[in-house]
Amino acid sequence: MLTKRIRNWFGITLVALTYTACSVPTLVQKSENRTVPASFNNSQDTTNTAQARWKDFFTDPYLTTLIDTALHNNQELNITLQEIEIARNEVRARKGEYLPSVGLRAGAGVDKVARFTNIGALEATTDIEPGKEMPDPLQDYLVGAYATWEVDIWHKLRNAKKAAVNRYLSSVEGKNFMQTNLVSEIAEAYYELLALDNQLAIVKQNIEIQSNVLKIVKLQKEAARVTELPVRRFQAQVLNTQSLQYEIQQKVTEAENRINFLVGRFPQPVQRNTQDFASLTPKTIYAGVPAQLLANRPDIRQAELELAASKLDVQVARARFYPSLGISAGVGYRAFNPSFLLKPESILYSLAGDIAAPLVNKNAIKAVYYSANARQIQAVYNYERTILNAYIEVANQVSKISNLEKSYDLKTREVEALTQSIDISNQLFTSARADYMEVLMTQRDALESRFDLIETKMQQLKAMVNIYRALGGGWK
User: Which of 177, 143, 170 is nearest to 88 (CA)?
Assistant: First the structure.
């Protein structure tokens, strides 16, 4: 008889499984494209600057101190570290779901049943033993253990745990990517600060030069060699340059505070290198081959892990269409008197299994399934976009470094020519062989050219930092 019942239940389960398996909707699948161009600039050299640790790449001790401090104190980075901890706890939660749940239970209570009810009447006429009536009120004591377990037949729970692991690893890569950006932001702001210091020094030199010329013009005016007009024009030029000095000082303050914010501290002076900014030479960068981006860029690895997690989410959602098997069990002691609690007659136990499968109205399950697949396709596009963006970033910076190098050489020659022209124009003006406007224009052009030269040098250093970040450096 028992064998026949088991066969019947097995047949019902088989029919339900067949029905639900056949009714799983089919979806349009999309595979990610992992191919990248063979090179950035027709070079197959695999030497890659991204392999260098940031402490080895940046050699300025003031800069490395700022970066090291930021990696400990930056609030946004610390927020991300807590997100990693949240993702780690999610893995623990998912792991616990497919393992048996075991607990202990103990309880005590009292129950007084009304006499004129069916239960009360039964208890009044029932003896525990011959001549010994049921106690009234009835006490109840229980101690035991229980266990529940969902048998992970379709790997629904196991895949959910794997998806959580991938998302945890993705959060770690997200932290690494944030670190690369943080390192590059501090380095850029630091080099900008050095450039502003150099511009401020140039402005002060120009103020001194222009003030000396103004004195000469005043003397010439007293000697009736020039009119009041050149005096006023040169005076206005000095005032304009002095005003520029305060504009640069404000930029210095803002650059320092941008660094202070990234470092996680209140405004204070930023210690920095005082050597001549023009003597700083950008490092030689080796871009390697594009295929190395897949391993070096944290954001690409993050997108790849998110894609793997989304694929597992589809498998989890698909498993919801299939029957689930649950097992529950319990064992313990129960009695109305503590003195009877540990007697063999007070033992109780239970063992049950249940199979549940969706048959009708599966709209909610379908919606979850369709959404999981849509997110998986979305993750594919995000992964491909991240690779494309990484390649373009590197290609742009490779080209920028080359063009800035050529531009800097030309601007250096321009500054040399205009610097010489200042002395020439001053000599010609003193000997009345040049107009004062020529002197003013020459000084202005020379100042602008020196500013442009510093700006180009700063752009070179920033391009060096940006390509290091674009290649995937800065998180090691």
Answer: 170
